[in-house]
Amino acid sequence: MNQITSTIIQTAENYFDNAVLETTDTIFQEIVKAFPVASSGLTIYQAFRNYNEKQKLKDILEFIKEGESLASGTLLKIFKDQNNLEIGSQLLNALDKTYLVHQSKMLARLALLYDVKEINRANFLRYAHIIPHFTSFLLEGLEKAYVAFEKNKTNKNYHLKNEECNFSASELERFGFLYVVATFGTGNNYGRSKDLIFFYENIYQHKHRKN
Fold it and tell me: Which domain of life is it from (predicted)?
């Protein structure tokens, strides 16, 4: 077992059950094989330079745990497939930038959605770029926006106001989840894109369970 994998597994011993730990060991060995030091500017050291930090470890392990709980063996398949080098690189880079457990879970769900072709390459890359930018503030804003639209979905004249989503509407618009429908002296009103519904139900949370 290489040093990185050994350190990760030792740190995680009290965090997950043995089955998940065994899978984690296997997945990290496959990552090391797929992304050697000389591979296209991406090294394991760069991707996991903070691997010895407790919170970073939890984030990475939550990524694996979420993937295994939803589709056992799929993350391993993704990292073993040499045709997925770009996808694997994007996942590693995104994981390296995350600091919330929720972000790690979203990245796992994103990987699984791409694997079953529910999203295309362009949307995978876009979401992989967006997810590390989601602070707790923006995550709460996203949820409030989704809930507000659901509560008012029978009202065809309903438009979201900025204060209804923690004043995060402009940033959610920038990510493509909202769009401006009217401008008044007090500020913009917003409509929701189909992307907001898909992202919230399939990536922010898994449609079959709550976080």
Answer: Bacteria
Query: What are the backbone angles phi and psi of residue 38, rounded to the nearest 5°?
Result: -90, 5
pLDDT digit string (tens) for 74-91? 888 888 787 888 888 899
β 160-161/187-192 pair status? antiparallel
Which residue stretches of 17-100 are H helix?
A: 18-34, 44-47, 54-70, 74-80, 85-97
Same domain, 121 and 141: no
> Each residue of 178-193: pLDDT tens digit?
999 976 666 789 999 9
Enter the pTM of the model: 0.78
State whether 38 and 26 are in the same domain: yes
In a domain, 209, yes or no: no
Same-domain check for residues 7 and 104: yes
Please check whether residue 200 lies inside any domain of the structure: yes
Q: Which amino acid is at 207?
A: K
